[in-house]
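Lab notebook, page 48
Experiment: co-folding of the full assembly
Goal: obtain a model of how the components sit together before planning crosslinking
Operator: M.T.
Materials (sequences as entered):
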Amino acid sequence: MLSWITFAPLLVIPPILLAPRSRPNLIRWLAVLGTAVPLVLAGYIFMTYDRAGVGINEPESFQYVIKMPWLESFNIQYYMGIDGLSVSMLLLTALLSFLCIFASWGIEKGLKGYFSMFLLLEVGMMGVFCALDFFLFFIFWEVMLLPMYFLIGIWGGPRKIYAAIKFFLYTLFGSVLMLLCMLALYFKGGQTFDMLQLMQGNYDSSTLTLFGWTMNFARVMFIGLFIGFAIKVPIVPFHTWLPDAHVEAPTAISVILAGVLLKMGTYGLMRISFPILPEATLWFAPALAVLAVINIVYGALCAMAQKDFKKLIAYSSVSHMGFVLLGMASGTSQGMNGAILQMFNHGTVTAMLFLLVGVIYDRAHHREINGFGGLMSRMPVYGSFTSLAFFAAIGLPGLSSFISELLVLLGGWKNFPGITVLCSTGIVLGAAYMLWTLQRVFLGPLNEKYKDLPEINKREIFTLVPLAIMTIVFGFYPQPILNLLRASSNHLVELVWQADRLGIR
Amino acid sequence: MSLSNLDSLRYFLPEGIVALTILLVLGADGISRGRRGGLNAAVAIAGMVAALAAAVTQIGMPSTFLFMGMLAFDPFGVFFRVFFLAVGVVVVLVAHPYRELSREFTGESYAMLLGVVMGMMLLATSTNLLMIYLALEMVSLPSYLLTGILRRDSKSSEAGLKYVLFGAAASGCMVYGMSLFYGMTGTLDLVELRNALAVTDVPGSALMVATAFVLAGFGFKISMVPFHMWSPDVYEGASTPVTAFLSVAPKAAGIAVLLRFCLSGLATAQDGAYRAFYGLDWPFLLAVLSAVTMTLGNLAAIRQENVKRMLAYSSIAHAGYLLMGAVLLSTEGIKAITFYLVVYGLMNLGAFLVVIAMSADGRRETFADYRGLGWRMPLLAVPMAIFMFSLVGLPPFAGFVGKVYLFKAVVARDMWWLALIGVLNSVVSLVYYARIVKTMFLDEPGESPLPLPRVPWMHVALIVALAIPTFVFGFRFGWLDRVSSYSLQILSGS
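Observation: model returned without errors.
Model output:
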């Protein structure tokens, strides 16, 4: 099951490469097929997933498990399975990948290459969320790098090459640190890459000597892994690749980047750092909370200063991911539930935002916020979608982000009240820049240059509608998602925070 | 446990075949004078394939010392013999249609190439200091000639001369170091040397000086810093097939002899773990050199505009990675080295084959000439991208697995600083490897000043044949793992 959902896109690549160049629509529909299979399977998983499954460190409660030896002498396994942490991410990935194929309909150059790379990217993303063996996880994690490099570098905007190599270097830097930590844990954790077995080990009493300094092993590991994941999230100060990559990437890739790839950083922290190194997590949680505030406030302030529509949304992502970090650091089940829910909601909302920017860019060929004005009168449907997405991003009650941000703030209040107050200013700032942008682009007198701008077309509406529906429905009724993740998320909090207090460990 | 001369011949079959082939190639040259030299290449390839077959059938035979303890026959040696022969076959296959080389001296150049191969086979199996010296010279002398063989090219001549001067100095140092060892212990045999060092009270400083001098000779072959200065000029000046050969094979030979010298001469083996002699911290010395080598190689490679030169510096960096495995004194380290060597051979030869294809008429060596290649010649560019990413060490390519083996061995010995420097170097190397990929795929073709080369189909087939394992070993490496587990056994006597 999980193998199919992961590798189905791979099977479509050869037919795409063999398809005649003269029939671009055939290639496009093949790509649709390649992403539809995982979507259908994800739907099936959504129906059949047992909501009570705990996962995290209990092997028997993982679902759809596949476990096969891969290389005995290294003790590497092909070990996949999902629990509450990964299932919502899996759904998000399948949905966004499917929609993004439609969002890339307008790509003309190197069609075969583009869709092959895109499908390869989906393989990597799915694999990361399914893998339970650290080595396997790492391979999938790195497999995403190459397609991303080419997708930004070939099909991107004017400064694409700079953005692509910057993204590549940053991420590789993070992942080589992760590689070292992985190998170190392999030896300290009993010669295995199996994440669940690594969680049994106790790493706190060990030490490590580097350039003559003796340090606590677990904390060094945590920092090493943290840098790897933080670059992906991105956590300030590792965020500088993000605005460049986002601005230069084609629309669909921005959507994937913001919608899925950013979540991998926080997912990695939850899946690997927290349960394997709980003591170090407790040690680091306050710092994580502080970083969360910086992300939220700094991201929002940067967003406010932007003139480029896409850059604004990129920085707003930095800000919104801060809420995920706060929820994770909070050490409460509300906070953790909120964090995962926020990952999902941010995925849908920010995907909408990027799709919408793509729509206007395709028509006007620029993204200067100040270069528009009064578009509402020309493009009412487009304007309404954008308003919905903006209000969702602000966290207006009744839309999905509100619930997750509220949960995070409630959870954070308990252990870090001061920090939480500061975080909530981020919502105010968010409202400020979003509304200001809305006003500059859609209200006011119509810019004469754009009085003939065509309205949003059916294909574009098709990509937006599912996301819009989810934003509204989960704003009133978040249970479908919350139920998926609650058991695992509560268990994770217990594992890291409560066990310590009760003296179990 | 060492066999007499006559009994040893059975184990010496591959070397014997190569020696015979050298004579046959020279003979064939007389017949085919004036023609394009297809006969010479055919004889050379047939000879090496026969030797390869002979070497492969020797897998599994029990380890023993040959020729009264001059050579060792062990899995480690078998691995390297097969490796050198395989590299030799590939290089002759691509060198043949290469006009620059086949214009003159075809017979001689193949004979010299075979001589280098034979020297390397001996070098990897020598267990006697004198034999090591002779084998090293047998590798070096034809290499100098091969580098300088393009008489009309001043770059080639300069490179040849530079190579000779550096090589002479290095081997002089090495002989001096060996004489010091002889003076201290009264023996040239590695095993006896170790036993003598264990009992006699030799001052640590004298031992250090002798070791450093001997390492100079090996370091020259591996292009280890600070004995690396020759390699960029030589690699750039020599004809590209020769460069491809020099960047892989002698480097592996140098690593092989370094391992054998250090592990059977300077360390005692106990239960698969080696221990260096007290008072002589050569592992630390080598570790520092390894870190410096990879860092310097990578930093210098970034600034290059000539692709051949870039690959030369990158091969210095890879020598640094390989040395990481040598300092660990663990069987895991040796295993990682043999694994990485196979992978390195595949990807580096592959990369050079693409460069050969591009510069077949002696032009198109700079980055600018690769612009837009991805859209114009995907059959060259896609394998090149695979080789480049594999050289960086990205999954799912073989280079990644090779690096994992190396770093795993380093981490197992708790040498954190070395591992950290190693992985950071991988990130640095991305800058220049990705630059080629960028030039090929991301840059617009623009107006290329030179027409694209015509590449023989066999050349393309060979490139693809190297690219496939580079990719497949990235996720299915069980077979290679078994090969390297077998090859890590070094016969070191008692």
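Interpretation: The two ends of chain A are 36 Å apart (CA to CA).
Next step: discuss with group before ordering constructs.
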